[in-house]
Design goal:
The protein is α+β, with helices and mostly antiparallel strands. The chain has seven helices and 21 strands.
Length: about 325
């Protein structure tokens, strides 16, 4: 597996951090201020030295090599644009040490991809917040890095601009198929952007796999360009789908992507199932539940304030379409 592998890393506040990202995956580091998110990015990039552990990028150990040799681009929270350089000069800056490439062609290509080529002669102070974000991302992408690190790059934007820039960012990153590690403390942003959400608190990872559901697919039938019906053992789900028909895959969704209620939805709703609660555990203002849906075990959770209103023997479960992912079967199942 190429991508990013962090193995038993300790440094500063960090204690024994381990996780992997497959090539092209977007991993989101989610946690409160002071949790160690930025420290972890700095360790991966080489800004902060390791105390112990190993870091691999595309299968090569980079734990003790220089920052500039790791194949990493880093977008800092303050963006770190040079105020005395134009947009073009800012984006071209990382390429100046490589005399073998056509800098102008490379820079204009990435500026057009991010739709900021008409701004190439402007200085950062003459740009909007969203435009500066795009320039910082363009500068990070222009070197074709193996790994992209981003430290809350959208935190200074207002809500509507954040939504727009996130959508643009996601489109470009997916097009580049670039392994990405993104820091945020916004759980909505994490779910929207992340293929994998990595929760961190006080320098330690919180097991984010506890409520992940993985169910083997028996068959899939495409019903539109990017939507399909996944047939499971005892029920089916409408799922996002962007590859050929096949059986060698499974559906994946987390417990927080379920809406659980004792009331039937008033109108027909996509991916509505019926089941019952067979066990539960109260935890930090929520109730973690195990559900039986026609013989299939599903993990979910319910806000504590709703718990007393739930009929444990009959619940309606809506699996949110946007939370469903299709994964290929691999040895980690």
């Amino acid at each position: 597996m190429e991508g990013l592998k962090v193995e038993s890393v300790s440094a500063g506040i960090l204690k024994d951090i381990s996780f992997t990202l497959k090539k092209g995956e977007i991993g989101v580091l989610l946690g409160p201020n002071g949790a160690g998110k930025t420290t972890l990015l700095n360790v991966i990039s080489g800004i902060v030295p390791l105390k112990s552990g190993r870091i691999y990028i595309d299968g090569r150990e980079v734990s003790n090599i220089a920052m500039e040799e790791r194949g990493i681009s880093y977008v800092f929270q303050n963006l770190a644009l040079f105020p005395h350089l134009t947009v073009y000069e800012n984006v071209a800056f990382p390429l100046r040490i490589n005399r073998k490439i056509n800098i102008e062609e490379k820079v204009l290509q990435i500026l057009k991809k991010l739709d900021i080529h008409l701004l190439k002669d402007r200085y950062p102070l003459k740009l909007s917040g969203g435009e500066r974000q795009k320039v910082a991302i363009a500068r990070a992408l222009v070197t074709n890095p193996k790994l992209l690190l981003l430290d809350e790059p959208f935190s200074s934007l207002d809500f509507e601009m954040r939504k727009f820039i996130r959508a643009e960012f996601l489109k470009v990153i997916k097009e580049f198929s670039l392994t990405t590690l993104f820091v945020t403390h916004d759980s909505y942003e994490a779910e929207e952007l992340g293929d994998k959400v990595i929760k961190i608190r006080q320098g330690r990872l919180i097991n984010s796999e506890n409520d992940i559901n993985r169910i083997k697919v028996n068959s899939i039938k495409r019903i539109s360009k990017d939507t399909a019906i996944a047939y499971l053992n005892n029920f089916s789900l409408i799922v996002p789908f962007n590859k050929d028909e096949g059986r060698n895959c499974y559906v994946e969704f987390s417990g927080k992507d379920l809406y659980i209620s004792s009331s039937r939805p008033p109108v027909p709703t996509l991916n509505t199932l019926e089941g019952k609660i067979i066990s539960y555990k109260k935890n930090n203002g929520r109730v973690e539940v195990s559900l039986d849906v026609k013989g299939t075990r599903i993990k979910g959770n319910i806000p504590l304030y709703m718990w007393e209103e739930i009929d444990k023997d009959r619940v309606y479960i809506i699996v949110k379409y946007r939370g469903i992912k299709i994964r290929e079967v691999s040895n980690d199942l």
